[in-house]
Amino acid sequence: MSQIHVFDTYARSASGKIMHFDVVLPENDPAKALQYARDWLRSIGEEDAVVNAENCAYCHSEPDAPHEMQKDIEKQGYSIFKLEGCPR
């Protein structure tokens, strides 16, 4: 896999909890990063969480991704790296 792009993302759950995570993509595409953030939030039962373009911003690029991230990207087009307030 070639270069990956990391989008630093914050979402607020319906209960007010802040979730901090990175959306990792094979391309630098802010619109896709935001959509994938919303898709992931729905997948964990946080469909009412608020995330917007200001809270899902390009952070940096890396030459490669760890193996587990590569598998996620190949399977679903993105990977999520959980940081703070996310379910484990």
Helices, strands, pairings?
Layout: E1 4-12, E2 18-25, H1 30-43, E3 56-62, H2 67-76, E4 79-84
Antiparallel strand pairs: 1-2, 1-3, 2-4
Protein name: DUF2024 domain-containing protein
Organism: Methylocaldum marinum
Pfam family, one: DUF2024
Overall description:
With 88 residues, the protein is α+β, with helices and mostly antiparallel strands. The chain has one domain: Roll (NE1680-like fold), CATH 3.10.510. The chain has 2 helices and 4 strands. A 4-stranded antiparallel beta sheet has the order 3-1-2-4. β1 and β2 form a beta hairpin. The longest helix is centred in the middle third of the chain and has 14 residues. It is globular, with a radius of gyration of 12 Å. The N and C termini lie far apart (26 Å). The model has no long low-confidence stretch (mean pLDDT 95). InterPro entries: DUF2024, NE1680-like_sf. It holds the Pfam family DUF2024. This is DUF2024 domain-containing protein.
- CATH architecture heading: Roll
Number of separate structural domains:
1
Mean pLDDT: 95
- CATH-defined superfamily: NE1680-like
Q: Which fold name corresponds to the CATH topology?
A: NE1680-like fold
Give the helix level as a range of percent: 25-40%
Strand portion, in percent?
25-35%
> What pattern of helices and strands is seen along the backbone?
EEHEHE
Shape: globular
Distance between the termini: 26 Å
For the biggest β-sheet, the strand order reads 3-1-2-4
Structural class: alpha+beta
CA radius of gyration is 12 Å
Name of the CATH first level? Alpha Beta
Spans where pLDDT lies below 50 across 5 or more residues? none
Largest sheet: 4 strands, antiparallel
Q: What is the β-strand count?
A: 4
